[in-house]
Amino acid sequence: MNLDLTNQVALVTGASRGIGQAIAQELASCGATVIGTATTEAGAQAIATRLKPHGGSAKVLNVTDDAACESIMDGIVKEFGRIDILVNNAAWNIGIPFPNLDDLTADIWDRVLETNLRAPFLLARAGAELLKAQPGSHIVNISSAGGISPGSSSIAYSSSKAGLNHLTRCLAVAMSPNVAVNCIAPGLVENTRMAQRLPDNVAQGARNQAVLGRVGQADDIANQVLTFVTSSSITGQTMVIDGGMPG
Known about the structure:
The structure is a single chain. Helix content is about 45%, strand content about 15%. By secondary structure, it is α/β, with parallel strands linked by helices. The chain has a seven-stranded parallel sheet with strand order 3-2-1-4-5-6-7, with helices on both faces. Helix 2 links the parallel strand 2 (about 35-40) and strand 3 (about 55-60). Helix 4 runs parallel beside helix 5 (about 155-175). The longest helix is centred in the middle third of the chain and has 27 residues, at about 105-130. The protein is globular.
């Protein structure tokens, strides 16, 4: 398998910490020019510090803003002339136990769905023609095991990630044959902001059920991204990384 991504340009959203940071660094270490995004200047500066030695950079991006998504793609093509890899990692969650329906307000529902489902579509649409212009390009969406089984930080989060899993399949059809679109569905990943917002019983349940005795690891997720973006015949797939959950 060719792990050399020299001359390829990658955009990784939500790259300031956790899973996104691991993905951005993995792609950069294989030679890709990586643009990482964050929602704040401080987050973007942290990304830039890590990526600059590899020739990468960082941008502040509101992934739910249609115009901002178009603008960042325009900036990438002006600066680099191409984009080969889009990793939709940015997401938002809040811990609301499933039975607490009254606590899941319409505003919270909208924020979760806009960040976790609408935003990946906006970025895929904004970058579609650029990606199609590079045969063998890739989109990788970072979803959640909560989008497959009914257990996560909230019903809204699970619903958004279930939608992202199916959006992956739909985009794989829409952007074929030049662009492969795949998805990774992590379970609990320790020491991430998302994990810290899980209800305690959900997080502990994931730890207890993981058949490997450990839950998903950020490095394993980054390595799976690398597998997807160096493959030539995988598309429309969702890979679960959770330490092995029975059933």
